Amino acid sequence: MFKKLATSALLIAVAATASVAGDKFSGAGASFPAPLYYDWAYKYGKETHSRVNYQSIGSGGGIKQISKRIVNFGASDKPLKSKELAKKKLLQFPAVIGSIVVAINVPGIKDAELHLKNEVVADIFAGKITKWNDAAIVADNKGLKLPNQEIIVVHRSDGSGTTYNFTYYLNKSSKNWADNYGAGKAIDWAVGIGGKGNEGVASLVKQTPYTLGYIENAYKEKNHLAAATLQTASGKWVEAKEVNFKAAAKYASWTKEDNFYAMLALQPGDTSYPIVAATFILLPIEKGEMNKKVIKFFDYAFKNGDAAAKKLGYIPLPEATKDMIRQYWATNIK
Q1: Which residues contact 284 (CB under 8 A, 6 or more apart)?
Q2: 242 with 129, same domain?
Q3: 253: exposed, middle or buried (C-beta count within 10 Å: 0-12, 13-18, 19+)?
Q4: Which of the residues 106, 122, 146, 160 has an alpha carbon 20 to 30 A from that of 296?
Q5: What is the dihedral of CA 78, 82, 83, 86, to 10 degrees?
Q6: How far is the C-alpha of 76 from the C-alpha of 61, rounded, in Å?
């Protein structure tokens, strides 16, 4: 029997027994949902003797590999608009909802203790705020001992859907950011050091005092990191907690006609966490038989994987959305 492989940016596979063979297919892309895909693949393999190989290489890599038909499915946290999907001859549907947190490593400061306005977060990543005891940070953290230390910014070094969603949030939070940087899978960062994948950023923050970086919440939980308390769109303080992720996720508006394109940052509501994002699966239109194998796996995950998603810090898709995705499959996969 095979054991569950460790979470990493390398191949994660669940193998069949020697006497029984199931489906075999591969995917690559986003690190954002990777811990969950590993879990789903392991359990699916145990039940069906199928082998699902997933490589956590970043959303940019996932889009490139599925566009070149190197893998059987791509995974991206940056949704593609219908025009681009048509050009690349791809289908798209969401798999799960996650959240991006601003992780910190400041000695003496615990999870949720540090409060950062959304514009302050943007100014830190833009290099306008450079010290932990800057007046703009101190103003919202009375009584918190903030050190006279340089802020070491950590960002992604690879093309990343997490980066796209995070910079989309910065873009909506700060005119300075919007005017000078914008949103993208990879940008010309003003300051900081780069880590590959959510794994790399989380590792750098964990190992390096006085750092601040953005990661998917599952990596924050796995590495026992502290995260800043941020602001809702209405300016209320909100912690990085499941109840607040769900409050934002409920505003997701999906349509089959738009290939489920949606951006979820800074949704309405006084308890809506500001950086929530869906992650998406990309399939090649022409690969009908292989696509049937891939959606069989995701349908299994939709039916059986919600508990694992919640345990790892993700938000499962609503049942109505899952049914809409099944209708999309029925229409587009023959």
Answers
A1: 66, 69, 89, 90, 91, 291
A2: yes
A3: exposed
A4: 160
A5: 100
A6: 9
**CB proximity list for 149: less than 8 A, separation 6 or greater:** 131, 132, 133, 209, 210
Q: Which residue has the tokens 């059986």?
A: 304
C-alpha 124/C-alpha 177 separation (Å) is 10
- CATH number at 232 reads 3.40.190.10
Q: Cα-flanking dihedrals φ and ψ of residue 123, to 5°?
A: -70, -30
The helix-helix angle for 118-125 and 161-173 (nearest 10°) equals 120
Pair 256, 326: CB distance under 8 Å: no
The per-residue pLDDT for range 148-198, each reduced to its tens digit, is 999 999 999 998 999 999 999 999 999 999 999 999 999 999 999 999 999
Asked if 217 and 98 touch (Cβ cutoff 8 Å), the reply is: yes
**Structural domains counted in the chain:** 2
Same-domain check for residues 65 and 192: no
d(CA 278, CA 53): 21
* Residue 43 forms part of a structural domain: yes
Residues 6+ apart with CB under 8 A from 119: 173, 174
Q: Find where tokens 């608009």 sit.
A: 81
Last residue in a domain, options 196, 229, 249: 249
Collapsing DSSP states into helix, strand and coil, what is residue 329? helix
pLDDT digits (tens, 9 = 90+) for 271-317: 999 999 999 999 999 999 999 999 999 999 999 999 999 999 899 99
Any alpha helices (H) in 236-318, and if so which ranges?
242-249, 288-304, 306-311
Please give the residue range of the domain that contains residue 92: 24-98+253-261+279-332
Kindly state whether residues 131 and 243 are assigned to the same domain. Answer: yes
Check residue 58 and give left, alpha or beta (phi > 0: left; psi -120 to 50: alpha): left
Note whether 201 and 167 are same-domain residues: yes
